[in-house]
């Protein structure tokens, strides 16, 4: 049922289109600037050091994924795809695949540019990245599904992505204990904690558990919203 | 006689609001069938139903001799081409990149791109960005994309609306040629000239119900009031009957070398539409 050839066609089309999309490209360089800024500073504390990685996932994994989906609706190109032999699963697999590849390239780039110290346990580190990618691409897909235009994606997306992707930045401004406790379970903080513990050689099982739960829940939610909204 | 589309007694409601009411018609293989109706009469809705993009509450729709739902099967989907009134192209990509995507999706050789661009009169434009094309050219690219996989059955929703006369004429000649080559065409329009020029049969849609259907010529003849206008060289006009008295009148004008022109007063499709629905087409 699912054809690799058709998925590849979607990936190539989306890739070409992104390369010519000035709005997306200018958004996509933000993590690179951040990495550059971090590299310039002498003493950067560990949690902040991983920020370019989380921001890469927020922007490239979630925000661009959402915008690309919303744009297909806004520009009425989705109907044509749906009337072709391409099925909806293939459209989403294609788009998610491209987002994943681009995010991974971005993460490698920010690590190199930011000269970010990576944990030695490459396998666990890779696993953490892949699980987080699943989380952010799912969030992006949901945002794309619920908004009708690219503009709407930004309006709905920015607050959502602040919460899910940059909560540790605001952590310092929050006084209340229980809010800190609760936000500690957000994917970005779990991800950063996981990396820190990996670096310090501490156990990471609990963080993997929380992240995996997020990933599974969000994938299920994505499929549910997708079935319900049918793109319209 | 084989019917490619059979619609019987279909009702369609949108949250309680009736959009189509007891709709019945058939389309034969090889014909160009036009759905003519004013804005909001249900033309697009009908097209959505016929292409399995929308469900319906009552009645039955058969396409290619099977339930319309079967169109969702990729194999059946390859037999139809759909151009809706809000089909979009990828504006940042070239004409060729747009068509390449659909070649892959439909399993069509890239060589077909040159062929199809030639068919729609856009040879040599493949490397142009879609965003740089005129409206009429974009519409022809969309048409090229729609016929890329050589569908047997074409669904076109107002294919020439808001186009200039030259572009409209181009599209009409493309459609006529496709039809001569055997493609069955279902099109919607609110342009009576379009219906008259390219449709073998038309249906008048009003408030979701078909009021009248048949070949444009037959409709005009059956609604003709049989009067004939003769214009004399001095500019005078006479209305005469289509009878011996009228013939006498015309004969006399010819004998006296006074006659400038004679024409029968067949109503236009627009006139007939107004007559049967009490409504203007646009
Ligand atoms: N998705 C929808 N939800 C609710 N009502 C709808 C929907 N689509 C169409 N309608 C209603 O159904 C009726 C027929 O609409 P339709 O779009 O089929 O008309 P149309 O003949 O194509 O008009 P136009 O010439 O403006 O394109 C209208 O009253 C419209 O408001
Ligand atoms: Mg319409």
From TrEMBL, chain A:
Its main location: membrane. Keywords: Membrane, Transmembrane, Transmembrane helix. The chain crosses the membrane at residues 21-38, 50-70, 91-116, 122-146, 153-174, 208-226. Residues 45-224 form the ABC-2 type transporter transmembrane domain. Pfam families: ABC2_membrane_3. InterPro entries: ABC2_TM. One of its GO terms (molecular function) is ABC-type transporter activity. One of its GO terms (cellular component) is membrane. It is a multi-pass membrane protein. The keyword Repressor does not apply. It is found in: Membrane. This is ABC-2 type transport system permease protein.
Automatic annotation (TrEMBL), chain B:
Residues 5-232 form the ABC transporter domain. InterPro entries: AAA+_ATPase (IPR003593), ABC_transporter-like_ATP-bd (IPR003439), ABC_transporter-like_CS (IPR017871), ABC_transporter_ATP-binding (IPR050763), P-loop_NTPase (IPR027417). Gene3D superfamilies: P-loop containing nucleotide triphosphate hydrolases. SMART domains: AAA. GO terms for molecular function: ATP binding; ATP hydrolysis activity. Keywords: ATP-binding, Nucleotide-binding, Transport. This is ABC-2 type transport system ATP-binding protein.
């Amino acid at each position: 049922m699912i054809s690799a050839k058709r998925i590849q066609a979607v990936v190539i089309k989306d890739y070409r289109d992104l390369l010519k999309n000035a709005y997306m490209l200018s958004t996509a360089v933000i993590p690179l600037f951040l990495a550059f800024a971090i590299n310039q500073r002498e003493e950067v504390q560990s949690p902040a050091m991983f920020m370019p990685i989380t921001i890469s996932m927020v922007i490239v994994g979630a925000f661009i994924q959402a915008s690309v989906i919303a744009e297909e609706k806004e520009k009425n190109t989705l109907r044509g795809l749906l009337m072709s032999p391409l099925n909806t699963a293939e459209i989403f697999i294609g788009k998610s695949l491209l987002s994943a590849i681009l995010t991974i390239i971005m993460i490698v780039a920010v690590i190199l540019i930011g000269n970010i110290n990576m944990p030695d346990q490459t396998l666990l580190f890779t696993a953490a990245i892949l699980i987080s990618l699943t989380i952010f691409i799912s969030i992006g897909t949901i945002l794309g599904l619920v908004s009708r235009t690219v503009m709407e994606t930004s309006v709905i997306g920015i607050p959502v992505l602040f919460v899910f992707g940059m909560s540790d930045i605001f952590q310092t401004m929050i006084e209340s204990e229980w809010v800190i406790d609760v936000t500690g379970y957000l994917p970005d903080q779990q991800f950063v904690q996981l990396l820190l513990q990996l670096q310090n050689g501490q156990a990471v099982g609990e963080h993997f558990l929380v992240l995996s739960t997020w990933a599974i829940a969000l994938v299920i939610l994505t499929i549910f919203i997708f079935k319900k909204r049918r793109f319209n | 006689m084989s019917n490619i589309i059979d619609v019987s007694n279909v009702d369609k409601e949108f949250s309680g609001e009736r959009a189509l009411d007891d709709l019945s018609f058939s389309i034969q293989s090889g014909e160009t069938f036009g759905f003519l109706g004013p804005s909001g009469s249900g033309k697009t809705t009908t097209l959505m139903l016929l292409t399995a993009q929308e469900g319906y509450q009552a009645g039955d729709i058969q396409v290619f001799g099977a339930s319309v739902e079967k169109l969702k099967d990729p194999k059946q989907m390859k037999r139809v081409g759909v151009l809706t009134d809000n089909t979009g192209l990828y504006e940042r990509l070239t004409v060729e990149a747009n068509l390449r995507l659909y070649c892959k999706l439909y399993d069509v050789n890239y060589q077909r791109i040159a062929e199809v661009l030639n068919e729609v009169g856009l040879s040599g434009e493949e490397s142009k960005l879609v965003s740089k094309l005129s409206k009429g050219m974009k519409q022809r690219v969309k048409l090229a994309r729609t016929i890329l996989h050589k569908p047997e059955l074409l669904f076109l929703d107002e294919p020439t609306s808001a186009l200039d006369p030259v572009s409209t004429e181009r599209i009409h000649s493309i459609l006529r040629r496709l039809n001569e080559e055997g493609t069955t065409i279902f099109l919607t329009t609110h342009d009576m000239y379009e219906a008259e020029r390219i449709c073998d049969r038309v249906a008048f849609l009003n408030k979701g119900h078909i009021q009248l259907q048949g070949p444009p010529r037959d409709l005009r003849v059956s609604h003709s009031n049989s009067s004939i206008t003769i214009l004399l060289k001095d500019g005078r006009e006479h209305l005469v009957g289509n009878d011996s008295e009228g013939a006498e009148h015309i004969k006399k004008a010819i004998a006296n070398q006074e006659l400038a022109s004679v024409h029968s007063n067949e109503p236009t499709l627009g006139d007939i539409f107004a007559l049967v629905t009490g409504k203007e087409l646009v």
